[in-house]
Design goal:
The complex is a heterodimer of chains A (781) and B (161). With 781 residues, chain A is of the alpha/beta class. Chain A is built from 14 helices and 36 strands. In chain A, the strands form 9 sheets. In chain A, strands 5, 8, 15, 24, 25, 27, 29, 31, 33 and 34 form a 10-stranded parallel sheet that branches. In chain A, strands 9, 10, 11, 12, 16, 17 and 20 form a 7-stranded mixed sheet that branches. In chain A, strand 16 and strand 17 form a beta hairpin. In chain B, 51% of the residues lie in helices and 20% in strands. Chain B contains 4 helices and 4 strands; from the N terminus they run ααβααβββ. A 4-stranded antiparallel sheet of chain B has the order 1-2-3-4. Classes of the chains: A alpha/beta (781), B alpha+beta (161).
Chain lengths: 781, 161
């Protein structure tokens, strides 16, 4: 039998083969797809791993830039402070951190060095209205972007991360404010409306025999009704020492300016008197320690203040009138020559226990009463009327604030500029002394005819008349008076046209006269000028813009870092490592408790710490071995130019620069409490008045037991002076010549070239991660 | 009677059996491949999710100030291997979701995800190394199929100089 294949035989085999082929194709396709998945997954993993590695790398570069950029010897220091432009930075400073290297080893990533660092953008920082930046400084403060490119190889691919970090270059100190040793823009409120009497909290320092005894005499207190001074409490004045360095002493720019505001209110400071000054000034008398250490402030009054005095001669110790025993009552002053060899004896007296009629020596056993000089009732000057109402005891209290410091041995006073309507208050007693027949006081009388001079008939036949040398001289130029004896309203007249009878505390040395200085006269050593009221400048620099998308042009636009707690800031500053690096303007969510800063200047990076909350400061001694208990002035005769205080200042004068100067700002007006006795190289700012009435803004803790030494500046709305003087009074004086804390300005604050700090911010911009096969030119994104 | 050949047009039983067997044998690897493929795709999804979780956990830590970051990582690493769903931040995120469906889905997806933090620190240099490993199961029912994604990054503390 022959086997015949059916024509359809084998079909199944073909079908099956086809089916298997399809299956095989499917298998291959599926397997390929799976491999693709795996590759994709692997690439995604690698990218993620490398991304974190490169971010770590960029972070390391940034950290090292931060550490080097403010070191004056580093390569980066000048690069950031130069003119803006797109330029590559040298990367010699960068050494990968050990942890980064370890991570690279573990992950088997090849770290590619060096990174590329380029300035990609920079623009000038602006200033708030009123700040006039000198042309040669414009552009020095800037903001920009720094581009860092980090590369690494991983599993045959090259990855590159390009990121931009914002940076700012800012001044380490606050412009304009840093030129002030003391800036109190609302201190007028501490004097009440009357400017004298119980609400005058500035003139509260009891003065007797050229000193400020710690406690006021009960007799004086009993004649000063409701004075703010508390019986049994101790007080010491706030004396702003004149510069101890001779160059600084003679420089208005370097001696530390003072502003007492506001600009539209007057502040009256009672000049302290010292009758012993006159004794020492008398011809033939020798200065002694007591005299040299006098707190008397008559040295601030120059003959030109009296208008009719001889400006070519200094004041002498002159007998002005006689007491009942035939003894002369002497005081500082001048014999002003009149026609026919007549003399007007004009004496000047400060506020002191000696002039209180009821208890002092001046009017004791004399035929004269104060009213013979200063008049009474409505005929007297405004302040004298008030003083009589409150009690003569107020005449024993002088200013607790001594802006020009103490009487220097060399005469004159420091060329410190006092801004604001600050007027010195003191007495002038004039006694007309005809050739015979005794004399008479020239009583205060503003309404008297200017040409109505006194006449005197002697023995019924001889008639003497008071005739000034010049016809232009008026009775009012000679009469007895309280200088700055009226409440002058600066709003009603320009400071340039201050009426007669007032003495500005500021001396215009160019014009050899006393003159009120307002913001127009302000010129800092670095060239900054003020085009707005000084109090406005203080406010606008620290203003915070309410609108979300805007930033104020002052401190707010310059903040480099924000810390959410005081501890976080202290850690970043490196306190634990024995450093205190602010290096810029930082914002700290308070409170901030700064521990004692004993590290050397090199370990301190200067800057401004803006604190949103209260601040407490322990001593800042900068590595100096300073025992404030031993802090003293030099011996009499060379008081300011010798002694531990002078030696110390000489040392710190050049060692402390703006590079390490520290500024602490209480942003919301919360108190700044000083708990350490020594603050060296510090400016404290508290200019956000929350109460609209005087309160404690900068205060010294009761825990301080040693002498207070403060080198730097203070800027606040109020001093709340009685409280401060009480705080100072808790400490026994360490120096026999200065019974007050040592407040000194540091001339570095007024350096000609402001120090700049570079701040790098951590918020990345322009993030771009690229990956490409090694050797391939074009990167695949 | 003429002998006639009867023409068979169908398949014999033998042929059919052989065909089915061959087809069956061919289908087996295909089915295996399909299963593997599905499992693979599922695993890729899990892996990606683990990577995303790890990245978001690390990013949230990197966003913290140095000190807070250090405190948090100390706390987290002390807890050992934790369920992802027990993470407080993730819980908050899930609780804030309005859609119940999405929340449920997420909870189901992350059911077997776990994570473990580790850290080391160079205190003087203020550098903190954060290590994070996120574990997931390829087969949810089988603990032995657990795999992980590991990421490491350095966090730098501020040093002003």
């Amino acid at each position: 039998m022959r086997l015949q294949l059916h024509p359809k035989k084998g079909n199944i085999t073909i079908i099956l083969l086809g089916l298997i082929s399809v299956m095989l194709i499917m298998v291959v396709a599926l397997s390929k797809r799976m491999t693709g998945h795996t590759q994709l997954l692997t690439l995604s993993d690698y990218t993620q791993i490398t991304r974190y590695f490169l971010e770590s790398y960029a972070g390391d570069v940034l950290q090292q830039i931060n550490m080097n950029v403010n070191e004056p010897d580093s390569e980066l220091y000048n690069a950031f402070r130069g003119p803006p432009g797109r330029q590559k930075l040298k990367t010699g400073f960068y050494k990968p951190a050990a942890m980064l290297k370890k991570l690279a080893d573990e992950l088997k990533i090849e770290l590619q060095l060096p990174p590329e660092i380029v300035f990609s953008q920079a623009e000038e920082l602006g200033y708030p209205p009123g700040f006039d930046c000198p042309n040669d400084f414009k552009g020095s403060e800037k903001k920009g972007l720094l581009e860092i490119v980090c590369k690494a190889k991983f599993h045959g691919r090259q990855y590159a991360l390009r990121v931009q970090y914002p940076f700012t270059v800012v001044m380490r100190m606050t412009p304009v404010l840093k030129d002030f040793m003391l800036f109190v823009d609302k201190i007028a409120a501490e004097q009440g409306r009357d400017k004298i009497g119980p609400n005058d909290h500035l003139n509260i320092m009891f003065t007797k025999e050229g000193k400020h005894p710690e406690e006021a005499d009960s007799q004086a207190l009993s004649h000063a009704g409701n004075i703010r001074v508390k019986s049994g409490f101790k007080y010491r004045p706030m004396i702003l020492l004149p510069p101890l360095d001779e160059t600084e002493y003679n420089s208005p720019e370097l001696s530390g300016k003072v502003f007492l505001g506001p600009s539209d209110e007057a502040v009256y400071l009672n000049l302290a008197g010292d009758t012993r000054e006159a004794v020492a000034d008398a011809p033939g008398s020798d200065s002694d320690a007591e005299f040299t250490a006098s707190v008397g402030e008559m040295f601030l009054v120059s003959p030109e203040t009296l208008k009719v005095a001889d400006v070519t001669r200094d004041f002498d110790f002159v007998p002005v009138f006689m007491n009942k025993n035939g003894e002369f009552i002497r005081m500082m002053g001048q014999d002003v020559e009149l026609k026919h060899k007549h003399i007007a004896k004009m004496g000047i007296l400060g506020f002191s226990n000696e002039i209180v009629p009821e208890i002092g020596e001046i009017f004791k056993d004399t035929a004269y009463a104060p009213e013979d000089f200063f008049n009474k009732g409505s005929g007297a000057s405004e302040f004298w009327q008030k003083l009589e109402g409150y009690g003569h005891g107020y005449m024993a209290f002088s200013s607790g604030l001594k802006l020009m410091g103490i009487r220097p041995d060399i005469g004159g006073h420091a060329r410190r500029q006092i801004f604001g309507n600050v007027l010195g208050r003191f007495f002038v007693m004039t006694f007309w002394w005809p050739p015979s027949g005794g004399g008479e006081p020239l009583k205060y009388d503003e309404n008297r005819s200017p040409t109505d001079f006194p006449e005197r008939e002697v023995y019924g036949s001889v008639k003497y008349s008071f005739q000034p040398l010049l016809d232009s001289q008026k009775y009012q130029d000679f009469m007895s008076r309280m200088v700055s004896g009226k409440n002058w309203n600066p709003r009603s007249g320009s400071a340039d046209n201050l009426p007669d009878g007032f003495m500005p505390m500021n001396a215009d040395f160019d014009k050899q006269s006393k003159k009120i200085f307002m913001h127009g006269q302000f010129k800092a050593n670095d060239g900054f000028a003020a085009r707005d009221k000084l109090e406005e400048l203080g406010r606008s620099w620290f203003a915070v813009e309410e609108a979300k998308d805007k930033t104020a042009k002052g401190a707010e636009s310059r903040v480099g870092r924000t810390y959410m707690s005081g501890e976080e800031f202290l850690e970043a500053a490196g306190v634990k490592q024995g450093k205190f690096k602010v290096n810029g303007i930082v914002y700290v969510k308070g409170p901030l408790k700064v521990p004692p800063l004993k590290m050397k200047n090199e370990e301190i990076g200067g800057g401004v710490v803006l604190v949103d909350g209260p601040i407490s400061l322990e001593s800042i001694t900068r590595g100096y071995d300073i025992d404030t208990g031993q802090f003293k002035l030099g011996p009499p005769g060379n008081m300011l130019g010798r002694g531990p205080a002078y030696d110390f200042y000489k040392k710190i004068k050049t060692e402390i620069t703006q590079e390490s100067f520290l500024t602490f700002v209480s942003l919301r007006g919360d108190p700044i409490t000083i708990k350490g006795e020594a603050l060296i190289g510090v400016q404290l700012i508290c200019l956000n008045d929350q109460n609209n009435t005087p309160y404690d803004q900068i205060m010294w803790s009761s825990g301080i037991r040693k002498e207070i030494v403060f080198v730097g500046g203070i800027a606040c709305n109020y001093l709340n002076l009685p409280k401060r003087l009480e705080e100072f009074g808790q400490i026994k004086s360490s120096c026999s010549l200065l019974k007050a804390p040592f407040f000194m300005y540091h001339s570095a604050m007024a350096a000609q070239k402001p120090a700049l700090a570079v701040q790098m911010m951590e918020n990345m911009r322009g993030y771009l991660l690229t990956a490409g096969k090694v050797g391939k030119d074009d990167d695949d994104e | 009677m003429n002998s006639r050949y009867y023409h068979r047009y169908g398949m014999s039983m033998i042929e059919l059996l052989i065909g089915v067997t061959i087809f069956g044998l061919a289908m087996l690897p295909l089915m295996w491949l399909g299963t593997t493929q599905t499992r693979g795709a599922y695993s890729v999804g899990k892996h990606m999710m683990a990577g995303q979780i790890a990245a978001s956990f690390l990013d949230s830590l990197l966003g913290l100030p140095y000190k807070e970051c250090l405190e948090k990582i100390k706390k987290l690493s002390g807890r050992g291997k934790m369920k992802v769903l027990d993470d407080e931040d993730l819980k908050k995120t899930l609780n804030s979701l309005q859609e119940d469906g999405i929340k449920k889905d997420m909870e189901t997806s992350f059911r077997y995800f776990r994570y473990q933090f580790g850290y080391s620190q160079d205190e003087p240099a203020r550098i903190l190394r954060l290590d994070l490993e996120v574990f997931y199961r390829v087969e949810e029912s089988d603990e032995k199929t657990e795999q992980s994604v590991k990421l490491s990054v350095l966090k730098f503390g501020e040093r002003n100089g």
